[in-house]
Sequence to fold (193 residues):
Amino acid sequence: MSRSKRTTLAGPAVAIWIILTVPAVAEAHAVGVSAKLKEGKVVVEAYFDDDTPAVDAKITVTDLAGMMVAEGKTDAKGVWSFPPPSPGKYRVAVDAGAGHRASDTITITSAPRPTEKAPLANPDGPPQLAPSEAGTASGELVVVSEGPSRSEFTGWRRFAWAVAGVVVIGGGTWIIMRLLRARRNRPMAGGEA
Fold:
């Protein structure tokens, strides 16, 4: 096989390899979200896969019908909280900008029990219960995030996916090079060398 024919075959092979191995959407910095009950509030955490907080991320909470329940922005720690809504399933969505979006479903299983003590005054919004009054004892309120926890989202899986990506790219390159070499070393029929 002549050198020009080998070059002609190598171009399409490399192009096909690139198309198959390069994802259509690359997520260099994925965002995660989780919610839990803490001190009588639903606390939402937004974070990136490198375990840094998603600062100033927009959080929206909607019911399953799409009606807005609450909205706000995360603080410097990637945290935002809101008063627990009535029992049911809700969607918590995070928009950290630049296409970094995530959502999770939370389930509120029971309404908070009223307390006998008076709530604390809060000049910036609705009255807040003191932490000792708004505990998370069994039966009061349970919030469950259905998605992965922060440690699951930012832990060893991130490293495992990076290793898997390198193996796929390296393995694909090795296979293509072996095929091209085998084709180049194969004798041609008809006496052409």
Summary: Residues 3-26+158-185 form one domain. DSSP finds three helices and eight strands in the chain. Confidence is low (pLDDT under 50) at residues 114-122, 126-139. The chain has two domains: 3-26+158-185, 31-148.
